[in-house]
DNA sequence: CTAGGGTTAG
């Protein structure tokens, strides 16, 4: 091949093949085939074609979805070299990628480096959603105020960034204020904003507010129904879940995996095995059988309903087991008196390289407690903070009090309570009271009873929302 | 830029 033909081939590949690569990349990313999208991008580079402003966003999006910050940073370099950084489509995808990879400061830097950012709603929106994802509530509010001061248009996506972080406990006051803003901007009936507000209320435990909003929403979509169903499920209102699920089906909506997750978890709580089995058949019928969320919920459902064999079969058949899958099966063995199996599984999980979280420790500690494996439980409790850096919460102390209490080691239980750094809750006093009853310790029982009667407030710290001024009718929109 | 999900003692 002569120099001339080489050059010709090169030119042809960069000019005529570029649109083809872009199309393939876009299609892969839009189908959520992110690994494929990234490998297409690499193929493209190797073939000599040069990426452009229509290439980068899809590659960057794929990094964000796969949580690959290092590849993301490399893409940032490529963007810089090709001079596409000022393209809003490219810039917003980079900001979003940094936000999703928890590199929010990089996102901010990118936003600040481009003076054009402060004129565009989409740039603000991408940074807002990054702050929201990283629970940086104050930054969200400050940025929103800045938008209003500069007169940048506010749209539904802006409000999503504002509403999302209000679902975390303690932010409900701000959330209600934000809801007011949505109404004033006429965006509360925007379906995504409405769904987001609904989720915010149910996550804050304000299930009645959520239901009111749900009933008022004029155009309820599948996501709306799912948000309400899962809201009930997360608040332990399992009967409401089944009722609403029935209503949803009667209205002709077809459930998707998210619907069925909430329904299955409620079946688990109610011990409603027959409904659970019906859901399992539906899963198979709709082709959701390999959904890991649904399989975790299914393992939990069978375990809680007492069918440990079925739970174990599903668990064993799962190709990828997360800490949630392990927690479900460990808890299942634990609550049915097979603490030895639960402990073995817990150790097997650790040997397999899965890091236990606070919930996994709750399930193994309670398994030890039920099976009388007192010292084993004490070992786990010790290792929890020392080895895994997990600070025990009230729920862990409750398990420990239960564990020590059942073993008759009431003084140790008492000492443990006295040494606690977290506030005791009703469950802890209940566990102590139960132990006192078994071991006939009247004096300690009196104390436990007294304490268990104290109302344990849910620690709802309200933001006053005074950072936000009332919106003027003449600004924005 | 873009709304909804699984596991947790008593």
TrEMBL record:
InterPro entries: PPR_At4g14850-like_plant, PPR_rpt, TPR-like_helical_dom_sf. GO terms for molecular function: RNA binding. Keywords: Repeat. GO terms for biological process: RNA modification. The keyword Transport does not apply. PPR repeats lie at residues 120-154, 221-255, 322-356. The keyword Zinc-finger does not apply. It comes from the Eukaryota. This is Pentacotripeptide-repeat region of PRORP domain-containing protein. It comes from Populus trichocarpa.
């Amino acid at each position: 091949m002569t120099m001339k033909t080489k050059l010709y081939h090169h030119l042809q590949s960069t000019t005529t093949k570029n649109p083809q690569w872009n199309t393939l990349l876009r299609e892969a990313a839009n189908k959520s085939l992110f690994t494929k999208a990234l490998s297409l991008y690499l193929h493209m580079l190797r073939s000599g074609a040069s990426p452009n402003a229509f290439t980068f966003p899809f590659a960057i999006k794929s990094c964000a979805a796969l949580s690959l910050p290092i590849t993301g940073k490399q893409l940032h370099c490529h963007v810089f070299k090709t001079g596409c950084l000022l393209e809003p489509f490219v810039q917003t995808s980079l900001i979003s990628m940094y936000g999703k990879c928890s590199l929010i400061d990089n996102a901010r830097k990118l936003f600040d480096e481009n003076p054009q950012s402060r004129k565009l709603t989409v740039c603000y929106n991408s940074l807002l959603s990054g702050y929201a994802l990283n629970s940086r509530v104050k930054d969200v509010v400050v940025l929103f105020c800045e938008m209003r001061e500069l007169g940048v248009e506010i749209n539904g996506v802006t409000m999503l960034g504002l509403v999302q972080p209000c679902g975390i406990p303690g932010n409900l006051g701000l959330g209600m204020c934000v809801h007011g803003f949505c109404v004033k901007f006429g965006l509360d009936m925007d379906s995504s904003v409405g769904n987001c507000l609904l989720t915010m209320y149910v996550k804050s435990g304000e299930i009645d507010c959520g239901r009111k909003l749900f009933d008022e929403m004029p155009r309820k979509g599948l996501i709306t129904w799912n948000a309400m169903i899962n809201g009930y499920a997360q608040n332990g209102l399992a009967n409401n879940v089944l009722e609403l699920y029935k209503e949803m089906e009667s209205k002709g909506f077809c459930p998707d995996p998210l619907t069925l997750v909430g329904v299955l978890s409620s079946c688990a709580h109610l011990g409603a095995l027959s409904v659970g089995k019906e859901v399992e058949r539906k899963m198979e019928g709709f082709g959701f059988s390999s959904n890991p969320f649904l399989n975790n919920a299914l393992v939990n459902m069978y375990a809680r309903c007492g069918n440990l064999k079925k739970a174990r079969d599903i668990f064993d058949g799962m190709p990828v087991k997360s800490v949630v899958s392990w927690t479900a099966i460990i808890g299942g063995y634990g609550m049915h008196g097979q603490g030895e199996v639960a402990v073995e599984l817990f150790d097997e999980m650790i040997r397999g390289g899965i890091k236990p979280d606070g919930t996994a420790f709750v399930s193994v500690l309670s398994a030890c407690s039920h099976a009388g494996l007192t010292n084993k439980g004490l070992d786990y409790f010790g290792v929890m903070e020392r080895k895994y850096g997990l600070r025990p919460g009230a729920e862990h102390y409750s398990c420990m009090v239960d564990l020590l209490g059942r073993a008759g080691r009431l003084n140790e239980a008492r000492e443990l309570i006295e040494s606690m750094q977290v506030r005791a809750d009703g469950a802890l006093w209940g566990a102590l009271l139960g132990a006192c009853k078994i071991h006939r310790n009247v004096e300690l029982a009196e104390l436990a009873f007294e304490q268990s009667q104290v109302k344990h407030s849910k620690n709802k710290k309200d933001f006053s929302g005074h950072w936000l001024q009332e919106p003027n009718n003449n600004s924005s929109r």
